[in-house]
TrEMBL record:
This is Putative 2-aminoethylphosphonate ABC transporter ATP-binding protein. SUPFAM superfamilies: MOP-like, P-loop containing nucleoside triphosphate hydrolases. GO terms for molecular function: ATP binding; ATP hydrolysis activity; transmembrane transporter activity. It comes from Photobacterium sanctipauli. InterPro entries: AAA+_ATPase, ABC_SmlMolc_Importer, ABC_transporter-like_ATP-bd, ABC_transporter-like_CS, AminoethylPonate_ABC_PhnT2, Mo/tungstate-bd_C_term_dom, P-loop_NTPase, Transp-assoc_OB_typ2. It comes from the Bacteria. SMART domains: AAA. Residues 5-235 form the ABC transporter domain. Keywords: ATP-binding, Cell inner membrane, Cell membrane, Membrane, Nucleotide-binding, Translocase, Transport. One of its GO terms (cellular component) is ATP-binding cassette (ABC) transporter complex. GO terms for biological process: quaternary ammonium group transport.
Length: 358
């Protein structure tokens, strides 16, 4: 695959504060990449460094075989869409899209043709004469997208473009952006703090925290093989169950002895079992196995296709609730109720081991 954007050892300091710490990353041509992480993790700073809106303090950025590290934004080849749409309220929709094209020196007929093409592409063919405040948030965001793409940039940058929209519009626009991106084959970087958005849209996700990259991978890799406790906790729902190694073959979870899930664990070691709620299973009443421990059900939350059971580890009075996702068809067979005790079976194949400070 051809590398389109190469980021090498990029750092960004604001006085004593380090917003980006030695970031290196290669993005392929035509790839859709999401920068994902909590507020203040550096994802927007990295996007702005790529755009030249905030110059890197050190390091190198190469776009399409051309070094752009310290170039002014207008000398770079990108289109950008912000969370706030940033449309000119005094210009019509058509004039908003046409502005950049006119600045490029295109003649009136060409500009009109391109504007009409884009209005059709984003499903708003009859809105060219309207003003931004006559449109919904989702429609305004589509216009902002058309304006960015009408200039045929080599790179599309999206800075939390969906976060100001309500859930249904967001979900629809998410599909729309992905479809357009595939159709155009344009290299795209999107900043988001919404893990669901990143999992649904990205070819690869870059998980960031405190100015460094924690993990880069496909949505499946990030979800199924988190590289750190932070990634496991930030992406999706994860149970962290405290445990300790009591012998060469057994561990203790709560007051229960269980088979050791990993040979590399040494006697006396304290660690956490990381398990997704869908990888824990209730055993039928009265049954137990070497890979199970008892819990008490504290709450049952209906989620449509499954019920999420919030449980307490028997013998533990504090600690986080253990979440177990139960498909509806299983629920009927298990007859779960609040207050009941059940054994929960862990799947060794899907168990992650996170070391605890000794």
């Amino acid at each position: 695959m051809e590398t389109y954007l190469q980021i090498e050892n990029v750092s960004k300091q604001y006085g004593q504060f380090t917003a980006l710490n030695n970031i290196s990353l290669a993005i392929n041509k035509g790839e859709f990449v999401c920068f994902l992480g909590p507020s203040g993790c550096g994802k927007t700073t990295l996007l702005r460094a790529i755009a030249g809106l905030d110059l890197a303090s050190s390091g190198t950025i190469i776009q399409d075989n051309k070094e752009t590290t310290f170039l002014a934004p207008e000398k770079r080849d990108f289109g950008i869409v912000f969370q706030s749409y940033a449309l000119f309220p005094n210009l019509t929709v058509a004039e908003n899209i046409a502005l950049g094209l006119r600045n490029q020196g295109k003649d009136n007929k060409t500009v009109t043709d391109i504007v009409n093409t884009w209005l059709n592409t984003i499903g708003l063919p009859d809105s060219g004469h309207k003003y931004p405040n006559q449109l919904s948030g989702g429609q305004q965001q589509r216009i902002a997208l058309a304006r960015a793409l009408s200039l045929s940039p080599g790179l599309l940058l999206l800075d939390e473009p969906l976060s100001a929209l309500d859930a249904k519009v967001r979900s629809h626009l998410r599909e729309e952006i992905r479809r357009l991106q595939r159709q155009l084959g344009i290299t795209t970087i999107m900043v988001t703090h919404d893990q669901e958005e990143a999992l649904a849209m990205a070819d690869r996700i870059v998980v960031m925290n405190h100015g460094v990259i924690e993990q880069v991978g496909t949505p499946q890799e990030i979800y199924q093989q988190p590289a750190s406790r932070f990634v496991a906790d930030f992406v999706g729902s994860m149970n962290f169950i405290p445990a300790s190694v009591v012998s060469n073959t057994q561990i203790r979870v709560g007051e229960t002895l269980m088979a050791k899930p990993d040979d590399s664990l040494a006697r006396g070691q304290r660690f956490e079992l990381g398990l997704r709620p869908e990888d824990l299973h209730f055993l039928p009443v009265g049954e137990r196995s070497d890979d199970s421990f008892p819990v008490q059900i504290e709450d049952l939350e209906f989620q449509g296709t499954f019920v999420r059971a919030e449980c307490k580890l028997q013998g533990e009075h504090n600690g986080d609730a253990i979440k177990v996702d139960v498909p509806i068809r299983e629920l009927r067979e298990l007859s779960l109720e609040r207050g009941h005790f059940h054994n929960v079976n862990i799947s060794k194949k899907h168990t992650h081991i996170f070391q605890m400070a000794q």
